[in-house]
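Fig. S4 source data, part A: sequence.
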Amino acid sequence: MIFDKRSLLLFASNALLLHLMLLINSSITFVGFNLFILGPLFIIAPLYLRADQFFITSLLTGFWVDAALPTPFGVVTLLMLTIGSLILLIRLRFRAEKNFHPTLLAHIANFITGVTLFYLSTGANLTDFFIPFSTSFIELIISHLALLVIAPWFFNFQRSLFSIFETKTEPESLPFV
């Protein structure tokens, strides 16, 4: 198959999660912090799709996230392609059809992305890096607590979209175990 329908479904579900994250952040502005829930966007595409379809999906999703967030343009796209490529290389080690490994990978990707974006937002100046770090660290911890609930729901949502639209529900290459 030249074009896999799953890549379009993953892009649409990633856009939905990004929109929901921005909606939640706009509704909790009175609290003074933002939830940072970008980790699940990185995970299912490299676990389920072939390399070319993963690249297309990650590129589109990365550009969508870069356009929506006030970050330097291209950073999330580069992070998404880098983290996704690493997951793609070792995807035989993970059980994609369950939620444990994708949720763990989502936490790792969320932490790497959060620390990278925070480091770039401080202007890459290490003297000013630790002053606002306590507030951002609290935001990151609260985001990871929310991610414990959101990530399994999101991965099950993406798998249910695969079955609703009658596409292949298994990953391209299953683990040997």
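Fig. S4 source data, part B ends here. Helices lie at 5-27, 44-48, 51-68, 75-89, 100-121, 133-164.
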